[in-house]
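Fig. S4 source data, part A: sequence.
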Amino acid sequence: QPSNPLADAFASENKEEEKHDMKTVNYDLSKAQEKIKQLCIQGAVITFIHVKWGHLLPLVLSAVTSLSSLPDDPIFQLYFLNKSEEKNPDLKRPFKKSSPWGDMKEQYKKAKEEADAAIAAEEKKEAKKMVKNSSKQDEEPKKTK
């Protein structure tokens, strides 16, 4: 069977999962290079859209989101904001992989648990009301006798 032509494109994701012994400087440099490559590709695509179709908004939004996400980057925090990894557990290497969806999965689980608890509490309330109503109905014929 022929090899996958996209294998090299996705190889970096698999390489990150493997554990390597490397110096912190080399690790930080590789992460900085990944970030620079990501920003260059994003900039090229957005610039193409601007040149080809004249859309200015994606160009502005891209610049704003790139700059606004910079303070959250661990490399930026370590080297430009002079934060230490001893004081900030999030800056310990290897850095946690950030999902494009953020903590959405955890938020979904928490919301689902809260909704299930609320439904269970409501059902319990309804059951108590039904028991009360049925006990009142049982007592009413006795009172009339």
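Fig. S4 source data, part B ends here. The chain has a mean pLDDT of 84.
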